[in-house]
Amino acid sequence: MSTRTQVGEVGAIWVRQVTSAPAEQWLAAVWVRDLDGRRRLVKARRPSRRQAQVALEERLEQRRPLGFRGAEPDMTVKELGEYWMRRRREEARDFSTESGRVQDIGAVSPQTLAGYQSALSHIINPHLGGLRLIEARTGVVDEALTRVDLSGRTTRVARSVLAQMFAMAVRHDALTVNPMREVRGAPRRRRAVQALSVEQARDLLELTRLHRDGVARDSRGLLRGGTRRTSDLHDVVLVLLGTGMRIGEALAMRWTDVDLDADIPCMRVAATMVEPRRDAATGQVFVAELHRQPMTKTGATRSIALPRGVIEMLKRRRPREPARFERQPVFPHSGGGFLWPNNVRTKLRGVVAGTPLAGVSPHTLRRTVGTLVAHSAGLDAARDVLGHRDPSVTARHYVAETGCVIDVREVLNPIFT
């Protein structure tokens, strides 16, 4: 009894000499059962046996998407990851253009893909990559990820990638159930949110002002001296402390995003700077060069009212002919282009080194704004200012405890009157 060819399966290649042709020819052919269930004959003619076989293999490779079943039970986890990443890259969209918002469900940015590839290269492949899919049982996967967690590394992204990979394998009938469904979640490491007090924020502004004026002090308290520096660092810190923006959002601001003449002067946050991203393990390039992405991290646009100090600074920086420069960066480098976020981080790290504020980063300033707004205007206001979708993210990662006495006596006193 003959066995029916499986869907997506390629039969045995046969080659024969064609004598009726005008010149000597060889015919290589094979039957393929495609995803629609139909058997089709794929063939190629060439002057020699070897050339005919090579030509047929090339045709099979070109039409592989039609007859390829995708994930298979004998695949290793590493092979599945490579196939899954290839599919994700095909689905990814270019977020670097100015042609409107990306609405595709499931579309991911290149920098997100870079994070996925990093999880594959450094966690999934070293600990699970050699397993075949039928060997990747829940207990095996759970034990491997637990060992990584105990080593101090986070597996949050790796767990998300594995769940998506195995879900694809289930859709392709390579697995009957997704092993990640019963794997325990990554342990939550609750760390105290580090934010500056109002006094510390003022001290930081004084440090950056001294750096701008060329009279910054070194770790021994001695004046560094030197020529007057640009005001970029001081002004960027002003904006970060006055708006709570991400560093990439602040550096992506153009004059067309700033309205200083409105009844309520404000900034429109609708873009971010994206730095080059490359996976060192595989050499894959996900982001080739620094560029302005015309959407924020969450894809949402928000407008933030500006405090007095930020308004005064922007009025000093504003070009004399705003209409001519409205597409220009608010914080340009000497050549007129956008500043690199990493360069600003490095400069800030150098200014606070050796001071009580050592270790302060642009993200510390974002948490400072989140803390001050949450404790004075409420968690929802802090979420809106920071541009989060989920208020739990704001509460968990951006609001520090202040140690203040909670005073609700006016609300409760009527009970005792």
Give a verbal description of the structure:
- There is one protein chain.
- It is built from 15 helices and ten strands.
- A hairpin with a 6-residue loop joins β7 and β8 (285-287).
- It has helices spanning 49-62, 64-67, 77-91, 110-128, 138-150, 156-171, 198-213, 232-243, 247-251, 308-317, 341-352, 362-377, 379-386, 391-397, 409-412; strands at 14-18, 25-33, 39-46, 258-259, 266-269, 272-274, 277-278, 285-287, 291-293, 302-305.
- The protein has a three-stranded antiparallel sheet with strand order 1-2-3. A three-stranded antiparallel sheet has the order 4-5-10, with no helix packed on it.
- It folds into three domains: 14-67; 77-181, DNA polymerase, domain 1 (Orthogonal Bundle), CATH 1.10.150; 201-343, no CATH class.
- The radius of gyration is 30 Å and the shape is elongated.
- The termini are far apart.
- α7 packs antiparallel against α8 (232-243).
- Residues 98-105 have low confidence and may be disordered.
- The protein is α+β, with helices and mostly antiparallel strands and 417 residues long.
